[in-house]
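4.2 Preliminary Data

To establish feasibility before requesting continued support, the project team ran the inverse folding procedure on a target of 390 residues. The structure was first converted into the token representation described in Section 3, and no sequence information of any kind was made available to the design step. The complete token record follows.
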């Protein structure tokens, strides 16, 4: 594909937006799923859109956003320092070349000398509220980026009311310039799984019919995974047929998870499959007895929504944004190991409650759509173009 490719023309439905997707990584983590879902919905809604991305993503975005103009960035920006440097120079040049009226930076950072108003997505503010959950280098970087966005962006998008409240409380952000756009869920990927999907993922995990509790996310203290491991072990240790614990996702920056796993009794099983393809996630979620996501540091909590869409009973914490996502359709626990153990044990022993959570989760997930998220973003773009004072 050439560096610049033009998609099909559509009737204008707002300002011409340049969306910088170069921060999306190949594993399609939470940021990748946000950008993928958003750009597909923006394209379908007729939003005039230019998408800048990594060269390896150009064909993918041409498929999911057929009405967008796709610009493949230089090869060097696969390396983060080079990407950040290019953001300050090359991105603004592309914006001028394509006639962008708005630049949307969907992951904290932004060009400081942009030729158009900039909208920045800030995903969470835990670098300020809970810095101990992040590495010192990561905390310093994202604190600086968030402060810059609050000071210099025309508007800021956040994924939950809780994140907006924290941004205002901790950084004194102007609430009139902070817009909430809830995430959606891609129902072509996240749905109650068929038997074949369950069987394929069960084989991939090597469970051979054993029941399991599932977690998906970065395996680190920030997601409260060590306490989940300890709580699960306490909950199931004396059961005659204890469910395994499946921890899907990449390893984090600290060794807290490894330490917790080293304490697990020998007769219990922890499975760490690493990265799972998006096509495997319905089977992972839908096949679980419980999906446990007891994080206390979420700007949204996309795995909770995706698990609900797959019909999984979900256990999470009543912290920050998570009640906005789960509502009354999930079970809640405090984040400590004892509370997790009590809540897990109660759910595992109550098939009726598990079935109720499965049904209510599917129903609640229907309310979260990328179409609604795209409409909220398009309103932000219109407001940014209108010249809200900064």
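Position-by-position output of the design step:
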């Amino acid at each position: 594909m050439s560096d610049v490719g033009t998609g099909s023309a559509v009737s204008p439905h707002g300002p011409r937006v340049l969306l910088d997707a170069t921060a999306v990584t190949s594993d399609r983590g939470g940021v990748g799923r946000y950008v993928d879902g958003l750009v597909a919905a923006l394209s379908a809604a007729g939003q005039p859109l230019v998408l800048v991305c990594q060269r390896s993503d150009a064909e993918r975005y041409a498929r999911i956003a057929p009405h967008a103009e796709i610009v493949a960035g230089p090869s060097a920006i696969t390396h983060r320092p080079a990407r950040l440097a290019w953001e300050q120079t090359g991105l603004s040049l592309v914006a001028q070349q394509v006639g962008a009226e708005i630049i949307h930076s969907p992951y904290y950072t932004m060009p400081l000398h942009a030729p158009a108003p900039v909208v920045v997505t800030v995903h969470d503010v835990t670098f300020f509220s809970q810095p101990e959950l992040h590495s010192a280098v990561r905390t310093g970087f994202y604190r600086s980026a968030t402060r810059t966005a609050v000071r210099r962006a025309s508007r800021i998008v956040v994924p939950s009311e809780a994140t907006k409240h924290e941004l205002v409380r901790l950084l004194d952000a102007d609430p009139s310039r902070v817009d909430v756009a809830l995430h959606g869920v891609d129902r072509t990927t996240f749905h109650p799984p068929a038997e074949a999907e369950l069987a394929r993922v069960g084989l991939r995990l090597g469970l051979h019919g054993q029941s399991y509790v599932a977690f998906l996310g970065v395996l680190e203290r920030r997601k409260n995974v060590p306490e989940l491991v300890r709580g699960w072990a306490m909950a199931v240790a004396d059961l005659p047929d204890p469910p395994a614990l499946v921890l899907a996702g990449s390893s984090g920056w600290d060794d807290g998870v490894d330490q917790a796993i080293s304490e697990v009794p020998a007769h219990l099983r922890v499975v760490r499959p690493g990265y799972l393809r998006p096509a495997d996630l319905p089977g992972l979620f839908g096949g679980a007895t419980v999906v446990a996501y007891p994080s206390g540091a979420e700007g949204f909590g996309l795995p909770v929504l995706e698990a609900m869409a797959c019909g999984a009973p979900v256990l999470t914490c009543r912290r920050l944004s998570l009640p906005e996502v789960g509502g009354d359709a999930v079970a809640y626990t405090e984040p400590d190991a004892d509370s997790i153990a009590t809540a897990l044990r109660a759910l595992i022993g109550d098939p009726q409650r598990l079935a109720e959570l499965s049904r209510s989760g599917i129903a609640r997930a229907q309310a979260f759509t990328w179409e609604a998220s795209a409409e909220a973003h398009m309103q932000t773009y219109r407001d940014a173009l209108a010249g809200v004072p900064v």
